[in-house]
Amino acid sequence: MKKIFKLTLSLFLIISSIAMACTGITIKTEDKKMIQGRTIEYGEGNLNSKLIVSPRGREFQSLTTEGKLEGLKWKAKYGFVGASLINDMFIGEGINEAGLNAGLFYFPHYGSLSKFEKKNASKSLVDMQFVSWILSNFSTVEELKKELKNIKIVNIAVDENGKELPTAHWRVGDANGGNIVIEIVNNGEVKIHDNKVGVISNSPDYDWHVKNLNNYINAYAGNAKNYNMNGQEIFSFGAGTGALGLPGDVTPPSRFVRAFYYLSTIKPIANSKEGVGEAFHILNNFDIPIGVEYSKEHKQYIPKDLPSATQWTAISSLNDREFYYKTMYNSQIRKVDLKKIDFAKVEYKAVPLDEKPEENMKELTF
Asked: What is the set of active-site residues?
């Protein structure tokens, strides 16, 4: 138990000292397929993410805020595939065999979870294991909504002064088109938002981000019209002048606005194959170079082994039960077809996202 406590406390110290930047999008195809995509950023060290394959029937137990395996117990109804964060127990993004997708997104200053009480330990689930609980238990958003009232989401750890770890909010989508954002505020108040705009980033809360879109009502696809004023022709220098005024920085509000703009201006997507490709193209715009996170005075602290703050990008094709990803080391897109996995027989696996931490480049000779 001491080992687990040290792990959770170090996790607190790591995450509470930095700002994770995550951007998520949803694409619905013309043939009614659901595609969920996201990036995950962390600029102070390698998240050591692994590809996790978790079988049906696997038994889980949550940590408590005290760092002990004395929290909620459950047995998986569904197998899933996902990407972990820091520890194999903590799933950042994944999809299960029923086509349910879930992921966590950093939510500092606004998330406020239930206070952990020992008497409620058997119903307590730490925030970093919430995604695992969702993926292993439910096939639809509606099923999840009904069960949320039966558990208490608590912080993974507190410091010596009792201060809680900055937590997350969560996006969950299903193959039927259900798509929600779960935010827990005010010491445990659960708010569920229908994700109508198909976007999520980080703080502030979802409602604030949606209201902020009204500030960009004039953004549109294509070019602004040329016009003549007092004999002077005013014209576009190049393509895309309808987007003039979109924020270009990497803050959560700006990323939310840009993601919404790209989603609202994409061509009709015929099928899931096109949707996966389009999702990667859109999310390429949110790949954050690591140097952006460090001022001139702190450039010497940039980790030598991190080629990008965006450590991985993942896409889930919910109706086709497929999980795609690429990493900061290797932009080769890799695919896991859940339909080809027998989750009743497969053994639990946690393998590195990359076989080698290097770009997969192909030389052409003539």
From this structure: 22
